[in-house]
Amino acid sequence: MRKTFATTHGFHQMMLIFLSALFVGTSAFSMISIPSRTLSYTRGITTTSMSADPSPETKEMKTYAVNLKFSLKPERREDFFSIIRDNQKKTLELEPASLQYLVGEDVDSPNTFYIHEQFVGAQGFDAHRDMPHAGDWAKFKNSDPFSEGGEPMLEFYFDDGGSSPQKKIPIRSAFGVHVELFIKPEVREEFRAVIDNNQRGSNGEEPLCLQYMFGESTSEECKFVFHEEYDGEDGGKEGFDAHTKTDHFAKWEEFVEKDPFTKSPVVNFFRTIQ
Predict the structure, then answer these.
(1) pLDDT: which is higher, 181 or 25
(2) Is the pLDDT of residue 49 over 70?
(3) How far is Cα 256 from Cα 109, in angstroms, rounded to an integer?
């Protein structure tokens, strides 16, 4: 997803109102219509159901992803780093179903953070919630660390595009992009054809693209959630800039000219923390 493209189509507002990302409500970070796994992750509540429960076979085999965003009080920044680095390390080392645990900070807004996690199946995430180190994160969340309007917001999705084989992804330096697209139902098939092509080109033809994955939100039909990572100079932004100059991205921009969205897309940029 391209920042210049964002500007052309109203995305520039998203960077100014970044607190609206992931679940838009009466306040920038209010949580509405949140599936039970979201409540569990943000509040430490143990639940097992989802608003849109996939088949047991899908749960067991497909990559299950979580995108999380929140903003911290500046004075709680170091506390957060201590907790999250320990949580990240233990999750990757102790949980067989954990595939990735990424932490990043917004490129424009200090103390706004993003977490992206991947698991083998939804049950992998359920097992993660029961680990002792997940309890440490829950205690931190309950200690009033978030800035006003900065409470955690999450999105859950299965990897729709088969972006890569299921394998452990190490903690690494990258320029990250989180995107939410709200697609008109009548153009859903065309959208999938265009975005599948974009994903194939990104993962298969771009040497600086580390990862391009997406899936449909488990809580909202026709809402698609993206996680992208790029390598190169300037903390990976070189790779992202190269991405926006490819033929497959040009096809995406052609599709956008058809006004395929029901509401303005949400785009967030961050750099990972190692």
Answers:
(1) 181
(2) no
(3) 27
DSSP per-residue string spanning 211-227 = EEEEEEBSSSTTEEEEE
pLDDT at 52 over 70: no
What gap in Å lies between CA 53 and CA 177, rounded to an integer? 27
Q: How long is the chain?
A: 274
Number of structural domains in the chain: 1
Q: Which residues of 42-72 are buried (b: 16+ CB within 10 A; e: fewer)?
A: beeeeeeebeeeeeeeebeebbbbbbbbbbb
Task: With beta carbons less than 8 A apart as the criterion, state whether 68 and 88 touch.
Answer: no
Whole-angstrom distance between the N-terminal and C-terminal Cα of the chain? 24
Query: What is the residue-averaged pLDDT of the chain?
Result: 83
In the chain, which residue ranges form alpha helices assigned H by DSSP? 3-8, 12-16, 36-43, 56-61, 77-94, 121-129, 132-141, 188-205, 237-243, 247-256
Query: Hunting for tokens 């080392």 — which residue is that?
Result: 93
Lowest-pLDDT choice from 56-65, 150-159, 175-184, 198-207: 56-65
CATH number of the domain residue 196 falls in: 3.30.70.100
Domain boundaries, position 125: 3-272
